[in-house]
Design a protein that fits this description.
It is a single chain. The chain is mainly alpha-helical and 126 residues long. The protein has one domain. The protein is built from five helices and two strands; from the N terminus they run βααααβα. A two-stranded antiparallel sheet has the order 1-2. It is globular and about 45 Å long.
Length: 126
C-alpha cells in the first residue's frame, strides 16, 4: 500500500516535523536490528532503503512499525500530521476509534513523507 485510502498526511513543517523525522529514524534503526539485516552497516542499510522503490520502502517501514515499540509521545507527534479522508484531524480525542491496523497505516502514511526530505539521509563520512 503506497497511499492510504483512509488517511492523508499534511506537509511536514514545524517542530513536530523534526520529531517525526526522529521517529522514522528510530523505526529504521530498529529494523536494522532484525535478523535479516544483521551484518549490514548503518550507512549501507540506509543507502539500500533509499534505492528502493516507494512500495518496498513502505514494506520496510511496515515491518519496522510492527517490530519497534514507539512511545505515546512519538505516536502523538505523528498524529499531528494525519487527517481522515474527510479532513478530520486525528488526535487524542479520536484515536481510540481506530484499530491497530489503521493506526499503523497512519504512522506509515506520515513516515513515508520523511523519505522525501533531503536532509534525512545526508549522512556524510569524514
Amino acid at each position: 500500500m503506497l497511499t492510504s485510502v483512509k488517511f492523508k498526511a499534511s506537509e511536514l513543517k514545524g517542530i513536530k516535523s523534526v520529531r517525526v523525522l526522529q521517529v522514522t529514524s528510530t523505526l529504521l534503526l530498529g529494523s536494522l536490528m532484525l535478523p535479516v539485516n544483521m551484518g549490514k552497516t548503518y550507512d549501507n542499510y540506509f543507502e539500500e532503503i533509499m534505492n528502493l522503490d516507494r512500495e518496498d520502502q513502505a514494506q520496510v517501514l511496515t515491518d519496522a512499525i510492527q517490530f519497534v515499540e514507539l512511545k505515546d509521545e512519538e505516536i502523538q507527534s505523528i498524529l499531528s500530521f494525519v487527517q481522515d479522508k474527510n479532513g478530520v484531524q486525528i488526535d487524542k480525542s479520536n484515536i481510540d476509534n481506530y484499530n491497530p491496523a489503521e493506526i499503523m497505516d497512519m504512522v506509515l502514511t506520515v513516515c513515508l513523507q520523511v523519505f522525501d526530505i533531503d536532509v534525512f539521509f545526508c549522512h556524510k563520512k569524514n
